[in-house]
């Protein structure tokens, strides 16, 4: 009997049933899909890291090394260190490298290209089948980043030239590099044979080193880092730990998973409110019948079961369909993971997590339905039969008189009057429009912010036209002085700032002195975005990156003890800034420095209006060779390409989803509203109102609610949305959106309004089918 009742009820309310089914299915699809992305991401990463045998601690170094001293350090700490190796990187300037059929070299690329040999102990470079690569002479394995950038294929050529020297390689495979896969890491490794590497090393390039360690217990990485920093071993470069490798590899796809989970949660909320609205409407329609059932002896639990069975069955079916769909379309969101890290090995968790995600949606919907249907306990059989409806439903809150209205159109006035008088009835629709506006605007604003030149200030660098990096090489100080003299005499330069990064020692919370990289210079010309405080202005000021502030447990106003030229100096923390470069552990101050401890020099430049920036970059690249001269717009587009491409996918998805949600909800709402208002509609038709007039009233109602929803949603996107995105993007604690007003405040609302208006207009066909004599019959 229950089955027959369910079937008839579902067929009688097709639009409402389909709408609720789609919402629950989408919620289950997104939650299960996000669980699948997370499972795939960490499963693939674990597999890649295990097969490549990633180092747990790595110190980059430019300059001479003393390998016997490193060996002695390891021998003294055999209880911690499992393996140690020193990897030679042959850094070759991009101007000497031509990839594939490109006519131009890699001179304009922001990537530092290093040619390496295959390692023998750990940190193995793998192909796209996650097999350790073995090289033959004349072959080269190219990073996946370059494959994507230039659409390279196996069999294409790579040429390395310098003057009369030239070598030609054939691409044999593409490398998965657990250390340097992500685009945000600006170093990339090309793998060649030992013989070819030796030939290249004799002809050109600079040697840098990766001093790598594997530990018995990965939890002792911090201990090893402290010991290494206090050992006096080579440290002219960035320190990277295992946790940072995981963070960088999961950054882009982790953001996508977090956004999808957020959207899924919002869809569950929408589905719950839709269910509440639908159930209360059904109860209102069946109020007299419920009273009759109570009067003949059926208790409230049995009556509740009749309603609950229908919605739980629908939720379970929708949840299962959502899970199945999530498995079918998961490749759309996991394609990037599969390319860069490979497919995760299938296990019970790769199935259980998505199933659990869909199951949670079903349980949440069922629990909410049970909560709503508790009101059956309080329905009086006598009162239900006598009145046929619940109490307190339709009293107009605010009275508006037509002759006092300033609205020129009567139908517009009636629409606005209805919404203001019964706004509680339109709360669901308003909430959905708030969510739709939020989902459309937040991803767009996030994408616009990341693509903005200003986003570099959240990465620990100033916003400028050109940046010049001068790293460890022979006679670096003389070349720096020559470079600054050249810049000072260049009339095309509007302003410039020279920054020197040097190593100091700071007192840790354990009472030990640890190395800290401090950037020294004038930070007012090209300022950063500070999450709290401001840039250093006095000699006793120091600004810390978020990671350093956390490690030293310092906040603005606290004191940090730093050794400056062998003397203790208490510096006041004046600001905390966001930084995802150089391992995220940096500081900025105005201090005297030791030339022997300088790691690198940086010059930030702004050119005058009308200056040809690409031509100026070529001029500087030739004048300051082998310094790295970068167009900062190119730097942002190249390093953030992985994040931007994933965000673009999210923007398209959220835009389509928002429009779809608005259309479905509007169709369902209008269907239920016109059914409820069938008598008033018939009266208006009888009084001479045309279908066009009635449509205008309903369009006015919904568009008025849409206007309120868009207003609230836009405000929420600019406030709450900023905070959510700040939490989602690792390393960024305080983000301010860069907004495109035309897109966010005009095009998106117009698109939503057009979709909603079209839906109402099409839904108006059902009004036409209503009998004008229905009210007479009643």
Automatic annotation (TrEMBL):
Subcellular location: Cell membrane
GO CC term (a single one): plasma membrane
Transmembrane segments: 255-275, 311-333, 353-373, 426-447, 649-670, 702-722, 742-764
Keyword tags: Cell membrane, Membrane, Transmembrane, Transmembrane helix
Membrane topology: Multi-pass membrane protein
Chief place where the protein resides: membrane
Domain ABC3 transporter permease C-terminal: 262-371, 654-770
Keyword Cell division included in the entry's annotation: no
Pfam families: FtsX
Protein's UniProt name: ABC3 transporter permease C-terminal domain-containing protein
Organism per entry: Lachnoclostridium phytofermentans (strain ATCC 700394 / DSM 18823 / ISDg)
């Amino acid at each position: 009997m229950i089955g027959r009742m369910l079937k008839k009820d579902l067929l009688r309310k097709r639009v409402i049933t389909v709408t609720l089914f789609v919402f629950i299915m989408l919620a289950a699809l997104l939650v299960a899909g996000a669980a699948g992305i997370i499972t795939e991401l960490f499963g693939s990463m674990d597999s890649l890291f295990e097969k490549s045998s990633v180092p747990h601690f790595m110190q980059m170094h430019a300059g001479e090394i003393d390998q016997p001293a490193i060996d002695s350090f390891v021998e003294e700490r055999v209880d911690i260190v499992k393996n140690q190796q020193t990897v030679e990187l042959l850094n070759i300037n991009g101007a000497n490298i031509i990839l594939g059929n490109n006519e131009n070299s890699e001179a304009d690329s922001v990537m530092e290209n290093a040619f390496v040999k295959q390692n023998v102990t750990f940190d193995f470079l793998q192909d796209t089948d996650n097999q350790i690569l073995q090289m033959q002479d004349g072959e080269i394995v190219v990073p996946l980043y370059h494959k994507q950038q230039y659409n390279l294929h196996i069999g294409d050529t790579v040429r390395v030239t310098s003057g009369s020297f030239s070598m030609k390689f054939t691409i044999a495979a593409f490398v998965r590099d657990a250390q340097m896969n992500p685009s945000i890491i600006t170093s990339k490794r090309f793998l060649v044979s030992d013989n070819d590497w030796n030939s290249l090393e004799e002809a050109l390039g600079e040697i840098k080193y990766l001093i790598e360690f594997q530990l018995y217990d990965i939890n002792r990485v911090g201990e090893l880092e402290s010991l290494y920093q206090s050992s006096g071993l080579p440290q002219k470069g960035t320190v990277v730990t295992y946790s940072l490798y995981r963070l960088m590899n999961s950054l882009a796809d982790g953001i996508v998973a977090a956004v999808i989970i957020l959207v899924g949660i919002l869809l569950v909320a929408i589905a719950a409110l839709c269910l509440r609205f639908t159930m209360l409407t059904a109860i209102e329609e069946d109020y007299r019948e419920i009273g009759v059932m109570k009067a003949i002896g059926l208790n409230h639990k049995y009556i509740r079961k009749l309603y609950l069975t229908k919605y739980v069955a629908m939720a379970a079916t929708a949840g299962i369909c959502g899970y199945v769909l999530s498995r079918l379309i998961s490749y759309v969101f996991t394609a990037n993971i599969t390319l860069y890290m490979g497919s995760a090995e299938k296990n019970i968790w790769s199935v259980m997590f998505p199933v659990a995600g869909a199951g949670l949606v079903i349980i949440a919907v069922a629990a909410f339905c049970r909560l709503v249907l508790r009101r059956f306990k309080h329905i009086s059989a006598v009162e239900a039969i006598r009145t046929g409806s619940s109490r307190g439903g339709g009293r107009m809150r605010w009275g508006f008189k037509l002759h006092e209205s300033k609205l020129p159109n009567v139908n517009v006035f009636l629409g606005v009057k209805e919404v203001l008088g019964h706004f509680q009835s339109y709360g669901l629709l308003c909430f959905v429009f708030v969510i739709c506006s939020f989902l459309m605007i937040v991803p767009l604003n996030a994408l616009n912010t990341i693509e903005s030149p200003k986003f570099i200030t959240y990465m620990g660098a100033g916003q400028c036209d050109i940046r010049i990096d001068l790293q460890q090489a022979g006679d670096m100080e003389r070349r720096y002085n020559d470079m600054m003299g050249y810049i000072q005499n260049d009339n095309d330069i509007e302003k410039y700032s020279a920054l020197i990064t040097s190593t100091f020692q700071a007192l840790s919370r354990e009472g030990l002195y640890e190395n800290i990289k401090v950037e020294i210079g004038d930070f007012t010309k090209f300022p950063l975005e500070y999450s709290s405080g401001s840039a250093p202005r006095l000699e006793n000021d120091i600004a810390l990156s978020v990671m350093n502030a956390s490690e030293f447990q310092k906040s603005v106003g606290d004191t940090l003890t730093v050794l400056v030229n062998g003397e203790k100096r208490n510096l006041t923390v004046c600001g905390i800034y966001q930084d995802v470069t150089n391992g995220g552990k940096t500081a900025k101050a105005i201090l005297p420095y030791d030339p022997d401890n300088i790691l690198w020099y940086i010059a930030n430049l702004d050119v005058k209006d009308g200056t040809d920036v690409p031509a100026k970059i070529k001029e500087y690249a030739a004048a300051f060779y082998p310094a790295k001269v970068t167009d900062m717009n190119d730097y942002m587009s190249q390093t953030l390409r992985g994040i931007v491409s994933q965000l673009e996918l999210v923007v398209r998805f959220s835009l389509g989803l928002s429009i779809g949600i608005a259309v479905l909800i509007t169709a369902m709402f209008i269907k239920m509203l016109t059914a409820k208002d069938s008598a008033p509609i018939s009266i208006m038709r009888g009084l001479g109102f045309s279908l066009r007039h009635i449509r205008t009233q309903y369009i006015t109602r919904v568009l008025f609610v849409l206007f309120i929803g868009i207003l609230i949603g836009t405000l929420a996107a600019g406030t709450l949305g900023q905070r959510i995105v700040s939490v989602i993007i690792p390393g960024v604690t305080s983000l301010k959106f860069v907004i495109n007003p035309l897109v966010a405040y005009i095009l998106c609302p117009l698109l939503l309004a057009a979709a909603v208006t079209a839906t109402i207009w099409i839904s108006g066909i059902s009004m036409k089918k209503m009998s004008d004599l229905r009210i007479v019959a009643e």
